[in-house]
Amino acid sequence: xxxxxxxxxxxxxxxxxxxxxxxxxxxxxxxxxxYQQALGLGLQFLLWYDEGEERNRGNFPPRFSGRQFPNYSSxxxxxxxxxxxxxxxxCASSLMGQPADGYTFGSGTRLTVV
Amino acid sequence: AQRVTQPEKLLSVFKGAPVELKxxxxxxxxxxxxxxxxxxxxxxxxxxxxxxxESIKGFTADLxxxxxxxxxxxxxAQEEDSAMYYCALQVINYQLxxxxxxxxxxxx
Lengths: 114, 108
Prior knowledge:
The structure holds 2 protein chains of 2 kinds. Chain A is mainly beta.
């Protein structure tokens, strides 16, 4: 069974540009979670999508947004990139309403803003 | 405020020695706590969940509500235990609050 896949693995953008990160969940999982992991910090919750709807978002500015497609894959968009957006972005998937031991994580996208 | 604190960024112990990775939390509700591990070049994966009370790879963790702690312990460390360990607290809407992580190094 394929795991959670994220693309691209690395992304280099210039300050002010937009970045788009993609995540494909495990087959059968309807929930997708996005986390930001900045250097030296723990994972910070960004967004949670389920059945195409945004269910919850963390304490991030509106320039962080996303969506979930009918096939449950998801995109994370970061507009007007700032240097401090440089981080590892992790995606996880689960069945709806499954506690955290049901999360499966992807390998992440390393975003570098220069 | 909801918070998870892992006070040690780095913990280095000798093989065969006991290991304790500390985790303290702040949460007004009933806590759901987890330990995740990330081995070198591998994905983040669940190690254990407090409700299951299982011992995984020799690790155990006991929830102490009085001390608001969920420390991870192993009586005899092995070299393959070297990894990053994260403590996480699940709050409402299935959101996870994460600690900053502890890098565990097991010396031969």
